[in-house]
Amino acid sequence: MGKTYKSFEIREMTAALGAEVVGLDITSKLSKSALIEINQAWLEHQVLFFRDQPLTPEQHVNFTKNFGELQGPGYMPTLDGFPNVYVQEYPDLYKGIVSDVDWHIDASFMKKPLKGAVLHALKVPATGGDTAWVNLYKAYDLLSKPMQKLCSNLTAVHDNFYKNLANVLDNYGAQGYEIARKATPPSVHPLVCKHPETGKKCLFYSELMVSHFNELNDEENKVIKEFLVNHIKKPELYCRFKWENDSVAFWDNRCTAHKGIFDFGQQHRLMHRVAIQGATKPKK
Questions:
Q1: Is the overall model pTM greater than 0.85, yes or no?
Q2: Which of 120, 212, 254, 273 is catalytic?
Q3: Active site residue 272
Q4: Residue 273 appears among annotated catalytic residues
Q5: What is the architecture, at CATH level 2, of domain 9-95+107-124+240-254+264-276?
Q6: Which residue of the set 106, 158, 159, 254 is catalytic?
Q7: pLDDT of residue 1
Q8: Which fold has domain 136-232?
Q9: Most Cβ neighbours (<10 Å): which of 2, 136, 163, 275?
């Protein structure tokens, strides 16, 4: 049983991670005590969910910036007049550079990956389009001691174009790729990292971004990557969230990976995302 809070009720989603926050209106200005409690619950549960929150873009930005400096505009489309509000609209986004079908940590290719993000559903299909999050603390804890030791000695190359190179070339050509490559070079992070606030170890692995491990040869890389992907997608490690219009998810990007479930075909799905800039490099 998790901690109880004065400002809202917590309903745990699964034994792995995730909790729904009940009885709190995040469209309004929140008290200092409520913000402290949200941050505590966020660190404990890793991803928080809110229902029936008709956020305006301004309210979305105001809520998110309570928890850190906001991510600025990049290569993904943003909302006119709101450079911090990223627009994720399908089916148009299927034609974009990055596919988030695979498990991933947002912007893990950056020297300082994002701290977290707040995703708001404006228009979603009645069925399909769920998002799943995996607990990377638990992913590390469930490894055997010898495997923990091996992983603790590995450094991973996180490359934004590892699985997206063909999309970039098809949409923007070689010159566009060169510009994007200079803007988003790969970064190297330890596979096992300590969370900068909780101090807990996690398996900092992104199926979408990790191209290889520096310490392993090609055959070894193939084996360990296949193992890690199968490991992090175990059902006991994740929670799956069914979106409704005006649902909100707020996740800690330093200790979770997530993926969209693309089972809604060409139906319209419109989401706004505001992310928190990372303040620290992943460290052992």
A1: yes
A2: 273
A3: no
A4: yes
A5: 4-Layer Sandwich (3.60)
A6: 106
A7: 59
A8: Double-stranded beta-helix (3.60.130)
A9: 136
